[in-house]
Every structure is written in C-alpha cells, then in structure tokens.
C-alpha cells in the first residue's frame, strides 16, 4: 500500500490508500474512491477525462508515452505537470504523490 493525496478544489486534501499489487491504474483507483471521472475512452489515453495535475512528486512518475502526450496537447490547460491518470500504474516509487483532478474542474 502507498499513500496518494488528492487536493480537492476547495484546497482540502484527502489521503488515499492505494494498493500497488492489484494492477490498477490511477484512474481506476480514483473511480474506486468515488471521484466522478468519466473515463470515456476506457483508459486508452484518448479522451482526457482523467486529466490530473501533479502538485508534488512529478519526479516519481515514469515519462509519458506518445499517446498520452498527444492527448495532453489537445487540452488548453495542460502544462508540464499534467498527466492522464489512466496511464499511471501506482507503484512503491509513487508513495507521497499529491495530485489535483483537473478533469473535474473543467466540467
């Protein structure tokens, strides 16, 4: 288990206990914690409805693949800390990650 913190839109932070042995991606974890992520494309890095901003721990993440970068390029508010949560598989190196779910702000 690792801990990932989600900063809510009001600034409050919620700590999530995330299993690293179930093969889930971060989008699936967020949905399991009842965040309203549409995941329209089913985790294929095509729709950006799981767009997150990494507030702390960017250095703990693997480099984004070309599909993820292409999709992020279509978003007007994407920046260097933007990622698609469907493309991130939590592992021990991500312990302490702090994120904000951008897709929910946009709706």
Automatic annotation (TrEMBL):
<comment type="similarity">
    <text>Belongs to the adrenodoxin/putidaredoxin family.</text>
</comment>
<dbReference type="InterPro" id="IPR001055">
    <property type="entry name" value="Adrenodoxin-like"/>
</dbReference>
<dbReference type="InterPro" id="IPR012675">
    <property type="entry name" value="Beta-grasp_dom_sf"/>
</dbReference>
<keyword id="KW-0411">Iron-sulfur</keyword>
<keyword id="KW-0479">Metal-binding</keyword>
<keyword id="KW-0408">Iron</keyword>
<dbReference type="GO" id="GO:0051537">
    <property type="term" value="F:2 iron, 2 sulfur cluster binding"/>
</dbReference>
<dbReference type="GO" id="GO:0009055">
    <property type="term" value="F:electron transfer activity"/>
</dbReference>
<feature type="domain" description="2Fe-2S ferredoxin-type">
    <location>
        <begin position="2"/>
        <end position="105"/>
    </location>
</feature>
<dbReference type="GO" id="GO:0046872">
    <property type="term" value="F:metal ion binding"/>
</dbReference>
<dbReference type="GO" id="GO:0140647">
    <property type="term" value="P:P450-containing electron transport chain"/>
</dbReference>
<protein>
    <submittedName>
        <fullName>(2Fe-2S)-binding protein</fullName>
    </submittedName>
</protein>
<dbReference type="InterPro" id="IPR036010">
    <property type="entry name" value="2Fe-2S_ferredoxin-like_sf"/>
</dbReference>
<dbReference type="Pfam" id="PF00111">
    <property type="entry name" value="Fer2"/>
</dbReference>
<dbReference type="InterPro" id="IPR001041">
    <property type="entry name" value="2Fe-2S_ferredoxin-type"/>
</dbReference>
<keyword id="KW-0001">2Fe-2S</keyword>
């Amino acid at each position: 288990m690792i801990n990932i913190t989600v900063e809510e839109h009001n600034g409050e932070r919620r700590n999530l206990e995330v299993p690293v042995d179930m093969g889930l991606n971060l989008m699936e974890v967020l949905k399991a914690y009842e965040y309203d992520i549409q995941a329209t494309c089913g985790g294929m890095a095509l729709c950006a409805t799981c767009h997150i901003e990494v507030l702390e721990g960017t250095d703990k993440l693997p480099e984004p693949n070309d599909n993820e970068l292409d999709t992020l390029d279509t978003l007007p508010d994407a920046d260097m800390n933007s990622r698609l949560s469907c493309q991130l598989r939590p592992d021990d190196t991500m312990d302490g990650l702090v994120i904000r779910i951008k897709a929910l702000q946009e709706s």
